[in-house]
Amino acid sequence: MTAYAPIHAAPDGALTPWRRQLLLLGLATAVILIAFGRDAADIADIWWRSDTFGHCPIVAVMIGWLVWQRRALLAELTPRSWAPGLLLVGMGAGGWLLGDAAGVAQARHLGLLFMLQGAVVSLLGPSVSRGLLFPLGYALFLVPFGEELVPPLQTLTAKMCMALLGLVGLPAHIDGVFITTPTGYFEVAEACSGVNFLIAMFAYAVLAAHLCFRSTSRRIAFVLFAVTSSVVANGVRAWGTIYISHLTSIDFAAGFDHVFYGWFFFAIVLALVTAVGWRFFDRSIDDPAFDPARLIEDAPPRATSLVVPAAIAAILAAPLIWSAAIAATGREALPNVVQLPAVKGWQRAPYAPLTPWTPHFAGADHRLLGRYVDARGDAVDLAIILYGHQDEGGELIGYGQGAVGPESGWAWTTRARNPADGMAERITGPGPVTREVVSFYRLGGTTTGSAMRVKLETLKTRLFGGSQIAAAVLVSAEERQGRSARPAIDRFLADLGPVERVTDALAADARGR
Predict the structure, then answer these.
(1) pLDDT in tens, 23-39
(2) What are the phi and psi torsion angles at 435 (to 5°)?
(3) Do 139 and 104 touch, CB atoms closer than 8 A?
(4) Are 502 and 375 part of one and the same domain?
(5) What burial letters (b/e) apply to 466-482, b meaning 16+ CB within 10 Å?
(6) Is 12 a member of any domain?
(7) What pLDDT sits at residue 304?
(8) How far apart are CA 278 and CA 275, in angstroms?
(9) Which neighbouring-strand residues pair with 446?
């Protein structure tokens, strides 16, 4: 005789494994977004106001669509809590803490994403997470990144323009990212670097490669082709604007470029890239995203406890507590009055630049700017910026901080020869007027011109203690009548002596108060 056990359907409202784990995941997601709400709001604000990351909401929609397409396959799997997934939550929490201490917003944003991904892995288990592997990885495109590519892309675009102008026989002269032709004076500005086009194309190419190809080599080739096409196409677009202005007028070319680039250019290049890749597609639209049979675990999942959710809560609390603790340490008050130093061989003079220029350092406690003139009549400008403590939006290194401030009328031109422990660059303002600027940063006993080194020193002093006083010293001069400003700057630096002597004296005054 064979006995059969009756099969009863789960009563309505019963906590099936999927219901239970999704409830826990929803709760964990809400806790993460609330606890780190400042960073979530920052990301959303960047999506809203930045043209570079305007595609990110579409990425979020695509992730939802990718998960929805997998719903029937996922239903064949059984979700469960999985303790090893807590490693990803911990990585995110640790990355967020490092970003918070160093003042690196991208690290905090990436840490937030890792915590959300870790919650999915921890609360849905290995089999479900493998089924969601691509949507989870594709979520990296939700983090605003890539703006550090702007300067090299500006330079590359300018060089492509010069090569193409040479091919059509249009004489031109290049100075960094500025191009002069018989028609006019053109700047390959940040908006012309093509970084927004490049990042959006990269996101599209990765998605298309996943959906349309099986072969890993074809996927890689398609992504590389799409990215290269976007860079080359942007160079052609910038050249076309200059050439059209030569044939018509600058105003007409500027209007044409705005309309064409804003509405049609990206769509045309996107269509061409897709058309070229079409013949190599080797994945059918009906192919399943994954094979559930290969992901089903041999052993039945054990009953879920609250240990993993509780561990997630503890991991989330740790960086917030540590951040609050270190935020209250190391603050030092600066003197109320700070003066520019006397420099042997140089006299103070009225500040009378050809074009007004002031370095931009938001949130600084002191900003000093003065002009010095030597016996030769050469003028050099010295700026000293002081922070008693670096906070969010008020730090040495950040967006818009430095020699070129947002909406200042000045634009970065090119790198220059770096001095020891410093960084040199050329900037151009209305006129046009070109100015060379040498920058030094002083923090934690280190003098450097490296933004990365500043962030590492900030991280070290914030995590392990030490003086929070930070300073920037900028020495600059205008190029007049085609003469390089660098010889005057170098003489001034030699007479000024080590920049740390100036900044450390101010720090010593602060501690002696």
Answers:
(1) 999 999 999 999 999 99
(2) -130, 135
(3) no
(4) yes
(5) ebbbbbbbbbbbbbeee
(6) no
(7) 59
(8) 5
(9) 443
> What are the tens digits of pLDDT across the range 241-296?
888 887 777 666 666 665 566 567 888 899 999 999 999 998 888 888 888 888 88
* Terminal Cα distance for the chain, rounded: 96
Domain-located, residue 288: no
- Examine residue 1 and state whether it is found in any structural domain, yes or no: no
Determine the 3-state secondary structure of 183 from DSSP: coil
Q: Which domain holds residue 441?
A: 346-511
How many distinct structural domains can be found in the chain?
A: 3
Helix (H, G, I), strand (E, B) or coil at 364: coil
Same domain? 138 vs 163: no
Q: What are the C-alpha distances in Å from 307 to residues 24, 110, 297, 511?
A: 12, 25, 21, 48
Residue at 498 is within a domain: yes
Rounded distance, CA 156 to CA 240, Å? 15
Question: Does residue 425 contact residue 436 with C-beta atoms inside 8 Å?
Answer: yes
Torsion, Cα of 249, 254, 260, 261 (10° steps): 140
For residue range 317-328, list pLDDT tens digits in order: 999 988 887 766
What's the CA gap between 316 and 203, in Å, rounded?
A: 29
Distances (CA, A) of 485 to 290, 336, 402, 489: 63, 33, 19, 6
Of 442, 418, 417, 416, the residue nearest 427 (C-alpha): 416
Residue 323: phi, psi to the nearest 5? -60, -40
Q: What letter does residue 484 receive in the DSSP assignment?
A: -
Query: Does residue 43 sit in the same domain as residue 130?
Result: yes
482's tokens? 């085609």
Position 71 confidence tier, pLDDT thresholds 50, 70, 90: very high
Whether 260 and 359 map to the same domain: the answer is no
Cα–Cα distances in Å, from 247 out to 159, 185, 251, 364?
21, 15, 12, 48
Torsions phi, psi of 465, nearest 5?
Answer: 90, 165
Q: What are phi and psi of 471, to 5 degrees?
A: -140, 150
Q: Give the 3-state secondary structure of residue 154.
A: helix
Predicted model pTM: 0.83
Measured CA to CA in angstroms, residue 299 lies from 78, 132, 296, 302, 490 at distances of 11, 21, 9, 9, 72
CA-CA distance, 356 to 61, in Å (whole number)? 46
Residues 46 and 136 reside in one and the same domain: yes
Distance, C-alpha 197 to centroid of its chain: 15
Beta strands in 274-378 (DSSP E): 346-349, 366-374
Q: Does one domain contain both 167 and 27?
A: no
* H/E stretch holding 447: strand 446-448
